[in-house]
Amino acid sequence: MKNESDKKEALRRWRLILGPYGDDALADAAGAGQGKKGALLNGEDVRRDRVLHYLYGREYKDRQADADGREGGAGASRMSVPHWLGQVRRLFPRSTVETLQRHALERYEMTALLTDPEVLEKATPSVELVRTLISFRSLLPPASMTAARKVIRAVVRELEEKLARKVRNAIQGPRCRHRHGGRPGIHNLDWKTTIRRNIRHFQPSEGTLVPEHLYFFQRSKRRLPWDIFILVDQSGSMLDSVIHSAVLAAIFYGLSSLRARLILFDTQVVDLTDRVDDPVEVLLGVQLGGGTDIGSALEYASGLVRNPGRTIVVLISDFYEGGRPGHMEAVVRRLSDAGVTLLGLAALDDRAEPDYNRHAAQQLADIGMEIGAMTPDRLAEWVGNVMAGK
């Protein structure tokens, strides 16, 4: 019966949530003997239970042996971290894998996930794991750095693939499908025209088409390039924004219509423009913590402005200023009066749900800086609109 089936499924899920200590609690609801010793689980669920208990059984590490004389988690405790991580990846979907990895590192301090190269090789790349690698970089032995770079590079590549086309379209304008002669590049290639006009070069014996001429779409023209300064707060709460900023700055840097500079700051200002095309190296150079001197970062950028009317300054920060009183506001007012376009972002990530100093942000808004929180593709759209005069 459906009701009975639903009941068993609910009990099965509760048993996985509660772990081995849920057997007795679920015994009465399950029926005679069905809640004892994991009887609610079978097959893959038994393996899932062991994997979950290996991690969450740490909550009960002070418990004494249960009524059967069995130590809670004794079986699971014999599992090695690499084996545990391999089982996690095999038994759970990616979203759950990322959650379990995050809990292992942040809640239970399983630093073997970072310090063991074998474990890092098996880890599922995610923004959360990159955030943790950056936060605990000082714990990484030299032997783990190669694996750490591999994880960070995989996440950077995934973000670039997700954003690159949207950013190009937002900044460079739409492709002009009725005109050819654009810059060579796979993203501008007119496949249909290229195939149609080269069909006579098809080689039946090889089963391939060897085009004599490639046709590329033109894009809506922008005249002179714009300068964009991306200033990123390195405080710990801004780490997700740092990751996305590094990737977005690299994409901006590759566009002919933009001259991008990437500047990180805490109480010191670090210009990483010479590394902006390699987000992995940028992220491995991040120094988290310390104070925040937004005014000094803005002052540094101000000294590099050459054409205010074609310059955008994007400040990414929670606006908790620790520098000289009034300095931040004075530089913003000076830049605004000069004609620089100013944007202050309390967050640049997939969620755009920031916690920030609203009073300071409002002060900046009152003197010419637009304030908001954006996803990376929304920022690209905003920049494109500014460049187009919208």
UniProtKB/TrEMBL annotation:
<dbReference type="Pfam" id="PF05762">
    <property type="entry name" value="VWA_CoxE"/>
</dbReference>
<protein>
    <submittedName>
        <fullName>VWA domain-containing protein</fullName>
    </submittedName>
</protein>
<feature type="domain" description="VWFA">
    <location>
        <begin position="225"/>
        <end position="384"/>
    </location>
</feature>
<dbReference type="InterPro" id="IPR002035">
    <property type="entry name" value="VWF_A"/>
</dbReference>
<dbReference type="InterPro" id="IPR050458">
    <property type="entry name" value="LolB"/>
</dbReference>
<dbReference type="InterPro" id="IPR036465">
    <property type="entry name" value="vWFA_dom_sf"/>
</dbReference>
<dbReference type="InterPro" id="IPR008912">
    <property type="entry name" value="Uncharacterised_CoxE"/>
</dbReference>
